[in-house]
Amino acid sequence: MLKFAAASAALLLFLSACGPATGINSSACRQARAESDEATVRLQEAMATQGRASGGVSGEAADMLLQVSVERIERANVEMNRACELGLPDTPADAPTPATVADAPLGPNTYFVNVEMTEERTEPGGGVVDNRIYRGQRLEVTDRSGAWVRVTGLEYEPRWVRASHLSREQPAPLPQPDLAPGLMDARIQGIPAVGEDGNDEADVRALRTAAAQLLASGQCRRIEYGDRSANHRGVYFINCGENSNRFFTMRDDEPRFCGRSASSC
Fold first, then answer.
1. Using CA of residue 119, residue 124, residue 125, residue 130, what is the dihedral sign?
2. Per-residue DSSP letters for 160-206?
3. What is the CA radius of gyration of the chain?
4. CA distance 53 to 136
5. What integer pLDDT is reported at residue 5 of this predicted model?
6. Which residues, in sequence order, are CB contacts of 225 under 8 Å at separation 6+?
7. Is the pLDDT of residue 55 over 50?
8. Over the stretch 138-168, which tens digit does the pLDDT of each residue have?
């Protein structure tokens, strides 16, 4: 059963993530921060609900709500990191780490993206594209309008996606490429798989090639994560556990490191 300590640790992770970043003025970053704020509020509400469990609220229901809230804030942190291109925060060595949260049970309105990429729009069938989401991403449907469904709470800015792009079943993982042993070094962590967040085989090879090069050169002892830039086409980043990311582009199948911001590429 999740305890207050696990929830507090997840909240600490969110609060510490709002450090210096590149891409901070992009609309994707602003939206990701707003969703992180929303997730924080939901977590605080869930913690309060669990605290009242002995006063008539079902303990099992309170635990489930807390579990879903912790999972939501962890997903929000990942999206904010990607959209804002954040580095790792300065964290004391003895700082608590969030507990591993099991997959929350599916609610009646839980769906998954079943296409490679779909657009979130401000109006059903129209408006402007406010965000893009990718295969396997989990969503909660809050309203329907013809062939479109809303995936934001009614108190937040609306986002609508095509209902046909969602399914109740989580799509099966896509086939993964055969990679050289050096690209599968156990010290390389946090690199997306093919189909995750819209990354294709070329993206995965680029990220793992850059990660392996940093390890081989001695510049990094471990790779914490990497991904595509959300705001600069053809730009990637790797983080080695530092306060800022290392950005690069690919040229002739080799990574060319640019600096500590995507704009330097």
1. negative
2. EEEGGGEESSPPPPPP-----GGGG-TTB-SPPPTTGGG--HHHHHH
3. 19
4. 33
5. 45
6. 81, 189, 190, 191, 238, 239
7. no
8. 989 999 999 999 998 777 788 999 999 999 9
Where do we find the tokens 């993530």? 17
Place of tokens 């997306």: 192
Average pLDDT, the chain: 76
pLDDT value of residue 20? 35
Where do we find the tokens 């109740």? 168
Q: Which CATH superfamily is domain 110-167 in?
A: SH3 Domains (2.30.30.40)
Residue 14 pLDDT: 43
Strands in the chain per DSSP E: 110-113, 117-123, 126-134, 138-140, 143-145, 148-150, 160-162, 166-167, 225-228, 236-239, 246-251, 254-259
DSSP 8-state secondary structure symbol assigned to residue 98: P
CA distance 211 to 42: 36
Confidence of residue 196 (pLDDT cuts 50, 70, 90): confident
List C-alpha distances in Å: 17 to 6, 37, 95, 177, 188.
Answer: 17, 12, 14, 32, 21
Q: Which helix (H) or strand (E) holds 27?
A: helix 27-51
Q: Is the four-CA dihedral 153, 154, 156, 160 of positive or negative sign?
A: positive
**Segments making up each domain of the chain, as ranges:** 4-84, 110-167, 181-264
Structure tokens at 41: 């509020």
Per-residue pLDDT reduced to its tens digit, 97-131: 433 333 556 778 899 999 988 999 999 988 898 88
| Pair 255, 206: CB distance under 8 Å | yes
pTM of the entire structure? 0.57
